[in-house]
Automatic annotation (TrEMBL):
This is LuxR C-terminal-related transcriptional regulator. InterPro entries: AAA_16, P-loop_NTPase, Sig_transdc_resp-reg_C-effctor, TPR-like_helical_dom_sf, Tscrpt_reg_LuxR_C, WH-like_DNA-bd_sf. Keywords: DNA-binding, Transcription, Transcription regulation. SUPFAM superfamilies: C-terminal effector domain of the bipartite response regulators, P-loop containing nucleoside triphosphate hydrolases. Residues 804-869 form the HTH luxR-type domain.
Length: 873
């Protein structure tokens, strides 16, 4: 399952070594300097391996502690006999290796040169000085080394390459190479932070987590949640000295393993100052000044994991309790400090503190850690706090655990008693958004009307009613109600977010964008500081992103996603699933389709990991179906579309357009263009009936991307109805496609590009190439095809129906339909059955299509179609 010893993230270093070995800067090799485990040996071995692969001879010499006491100890395998006087052997070794170089290129690797004895180091130095031998030498930074080795780089004989730990991106590349698949970003970041970018440690830690079942493949993505599994191998690599500590020094490490960084004055109230000094001298702890205060932390993150794995829980519980009591002696600096103190208390031998737990639950919700908030709220409720159940209900709602939230909310919202109104509206919101049971939500809200309401309660109900209207595709009513609720100024943070969601959905569907950005900004400002609404920023973000896409505001969408990504210091797992979806969606609508697929699969893995039943699951599947389809991955597109179809609640009328478009893309990717166009045409009719002009426009846009211009007249009406650059671009696109106007199609392509939609711009440029060729304007056709190819490459290599049409010899409609089915792998008999025609007729169309594009076989015809317009053969 796990590949061995990958080399990733070191392309720049390999290029530097190649230049040095090629004589760059008048050197004949390189000294690779770095800390233990950083990858020096692996890099050097890779250089020698590549040399061997092209026929060069190599020698590998290793310095060891045991051979260091022997003269020429590193070269004993190359010496036939040991003389009392080693100097003849020195001359022999140098002459022998230089002679080998004269016979042909030879590369000498010297590993751990800091462990060479003096004479071995002298031989290496002489070889470098001769300028005839090429060397790759590794050296541990900070170690005592022979003068002759130091001189290699100080005197400019060899170039020096300081090998730094892997960057976060390089570490992720390495881990994905090991596992042979995608690793979610949070897991990769965790490995990098725990190992400090040390390649050796990271490799072993990955193997340990997989072996222990802590890291699992979920929805095609490797995810690591939970504690760290510590094996003997990683313990031997990192923590040998931890086994030899006195009890007092171990207490220093164990205390910091539970809470770091920690102020030195607080730490010294719990451990002996002299023991802290000893731990610092042993390089187990670092002490640094920060803001006028000395702060202590562990010297390596793995030290804490190793100690936690090797000591008892009762011992650690006692340490946590003492820490919590010490931290409580002064006010918490921020909400994170309160959460930290509460967690220490919760996991200690101290008696429960329900008020602290409840406060920490609210703070954890603000910090987006809903799972931790649920632990605190549950503990507070168990300890007897009467307010804890209500806080837990809100948290369960945000977690997407709709069934549990419904049970709690139903119990505390019963009747018309004081305070019950707020929980009833939250229950209706939960029924709508988490459970997809809109009719039940409507009944709850209708019952509320029969109870006396304060103005604040009335507008809270109206805000949730607006959501119900939006979910049911009654956009104009949703807009009216949500604006009234927001304008009242009497909404709680939660209900204000509900109203903002409904308003943004309705504005996006109606094509009204005057205050769309202002509404979004106000909602996100409110969410950032509210425990009730903090996590809703990501849900709101997805609603806003959809509205931006429908109205062609792609850069505004990208700016919002960037804001959300930077809105918190840490993004916990469920929040990251939402954020990964948003980042994947924005890359999809901008046209970076391959990046989009990776991010969307991360989002789907998070959905699976947390059992999410909200709209995040189908929305992710919609986007994946489109992204895979645009890359020509028909099977994956069909799978994603089917997954979406299975999880969209019947009452979610607002999702039906997206569902149809996703299904259409999956059909198009599998060669069923006629069915794809029919699917979105039917969705356009439905959207028109429901007064969703931007939904209708989207349907006509994708139909035009697949070559259908039958909606031209209606698109012109829509462009007049909704005054948006996107509507004008779609109108220009369909009108030009209908009359095979190459100039008009290129103008439409430019209009899409100006909006920020590179993928659609590529499709329309490809259609322009075909239109020019049809009118015998070959020069213009080649130019348009080149534009389409450039845009397609920028999107990660698109393989859409438009880009599969050969520009040089355009096919008839029937020929194109058959070629699409050939591309997805159907036999002639299967094509005949699909299109209700004879096999002989199919063969005739294939023969004529081959003549048009210059193909000599069915397979070559499919290959030409896959390569796209005017691609070199």
């Amino acid at each position: 399952m796990i590949g061995g010893d990958p080399l990733a993230g070191r392309d720049g270093e390999l290029a530097t070594i190649r230049r040095a070995l090629g004589g760059g800067n008048n050197t004949s090799g390189v000294v690779i300097v770095g800390s233990a485990g950083v990858g020096k040996t692996r890099l050097a071995r890779e250089v020698l391996s590549r040399a061997e692969s092209v026929g060069e001879r190599t020698n590998w010499i290793v310095g060891t502690e045991s051979a260091r006491a022997l003269p020429l100890g590193a070269f004993t395998a190359m010496i036939s006999d040991t003389l009392a006087d080693p100097l003849p052997n020195v001359r022999y070794l140098i002459n022998s290796l230089v002679a080998q170089q004269r016979k042909g290129r030879i590369l000498i690797g010297v590993d751990d040169a800091h462990l060479l004895d003096g004479l071995s180091a002298h031989v290496v130095h002489q070889l470098a000085q001769s300028r005839t031998a090429r060397l790759v030498v590794t050296l541990r930074s900070g170690a005592e080394e022979p003068d002759a080795i130091t001189a290699l780089w100080k005197d400019g004989l060899l170039a020096r390459l300081d090998l730094e730990p892997l960057s976060a991106d390089a570490a992720r590349d390495m881990i994905e190479t090991m596992l042979g698949g995608t690793v979610d970003a949070r897991s990769a970041r965790r490995f990098w932070e725990l190992t400090g970018g040390n390649a050796l440690f990271a490799q072993q830690l990955v193997k340990d987590q997989v072996a222990a079942g802590r890291m699992r493949l979920t929805a095609g993505v490797w995810m690591w949640d939970g504690d760290v599994a510590v094996s003997q191998s990683i313990s031997d690599m990192v923590g040998r000295q931890l086994r030899e500590l006195t009890a007092d020094v171990a207490l220093v490490v164990d205390t910091l393993s539970q809470c770091e960084p920690l102020a030195v004055d607080a730490l010294c109230d719990l451990v002996g100052p002299s023991d802290l000094e000893t731990a610092e001298q042993l390089r187990l702890v670092t002490v640094e000044r920060s803001g006028g205060e000395l702060m202590a932390r562990l010297a390596h993150p793995l030290f804490g994991e190793l100690r936690r794995a090797g000591v008892g829980e009762m011992y650690l519980s006692r340490i946590r309790g003492r820490l919590a009591q010490r931290l409580a002696k002064k006010p918490d600096d921020d909400i994170q400090a309160t959460v930290r103190r509460a967690l220490l208390t919760l996991e200690s031998d101290l008696p429960p503190d329900p008020r602290l737990y409840l406060q920490a639950a609210q703070h954890a919700m603000t910090l987006l850690d809903l799972e931790l908030a649920d632990r605190f709220a549950t503990a507070a409720h168990a300890a007897g706090d009467p307010e804890a159940l209500a806080v837990r209900a809100v948290n369960l709602l945000l977690l997407g655990r709709g069934g549990e939230a419904e049970a709690v909310l139903r119990s505390i919202a019963a009747g018309c008693s004081e305070g019950a109104h707020q929980w009833a509206t939250m229950r209706a919101a939960n029924l709508t958004w988490m459970l997809g049971r809109c009719s039940e939500a409507s009944a709850v809200l209708a019952e509320l009307k029969t109870c006396p309401e304060t103005p604040a309660e009335k507008y809270a109900r109206i805000a949730v009613e607006a959501c119900l209207e939006a979910a049911s595709a009654r956009c104009a009513v949703a807009e009216q109600k949500s604006r009234a609720a927001l304008d009242s100024g009497q909404l709680t943070d939660y209900h204000a977010m509900m109203a903002a969601v409904a308003l943004t959905m309705s504005m996006g569907a109606l094509g009204r964008t005057d205050d769309l950005t202002a509404v979004a900004g106000a909602a996100l400002d409110r969410a950032t500081t509210s425990f009730q609404a903090s996590h809703m920023r990501f849900w709101f973000g997805s609603v806003y992103a959809r509205a931006c896409r429908l109205t062609g505001r792609i850069e505004e969408c990208a700016a919002m996603v960037a804001r959300l990504a930077g809105s918190a210091r840490e993004i916990p797992s469920l929040a990251y699933a939402n954020l990964a979806f948003l980042m994947g969606l924005v890359e999809l609508i901008r046209g970076d389709v391959r990046t989009s697929v990776k991010l969307l699969h991360e989002a789907l893995a998070g959905v699976e990991r947390h059992g999410v039943t909200t709209g995040l699951r189908p929305a992710t599947c919609f986007a994946l179906a489109e992204a895979h389809a645009k890359l020509g991955e028909g099977e994956a597109a069909e799978e994603a579309s089917a997954a979406a179809q299975s999880c969209v609640p019947e009452d979610y009328l607002y999702m039906q357009t997206a569902q149809s478009v996703a299904a259409g893309w999956a059909l198009a990717a599998n060669g069923c263009l006629r069915e794809a166009v029919t699917t979105v045409d039917e969705a356009a009719v439905l959207a028109r009936r429901r007064n969703q002009p931007t939904h209708e426009l989207l349907c006509y846009q994708v139909a035009a991307q697949w070559g259908d211009a039958s909606g031209t007249a209606r698109v012109r009406e829509l462009a007049q109805q909704i005054d948006l650059p996107l509507a004008k671009a779609v109108a220009r696109h369909t009108e030009s496609l209908a009359v095979h106007d190459g100039d008009g199609l290129l103008e439409a392509s430019d209009a899409y590009l100006a909006i920020g939609d590179r993928a659609t711009a590529a499709d329309v440029a490809a259609q322009a190439a075909v239109a020019y060729t049809r009118k015998q304007e070959r020069k213009h056709g080649l130019k348009a095809a080149a534009i389409a190819k450039e845009l397609s490459d920028a999107c990660g290599g698109l393989c859409t129906p438009a880009l599969r049409v050969p520009a040089s010899q355009p096919l008839t409609g029937r020929q194109r339909e058959i070629v699409e089915l050939i591309v997805v792998g159907l036999s002639n008999r299967e094509i005949a059955k699909r299109l209700v025609m004879s096999v002989r007729s199919v063969e005739g169309h294939i023969y004529r299509a081959c003549q048009r594009v210059g193909a000599s076989s069915r397979e070559e015809l499919a290959s030409i179609a896959r390569r796209g317009p005017d691609a070199p053969r």
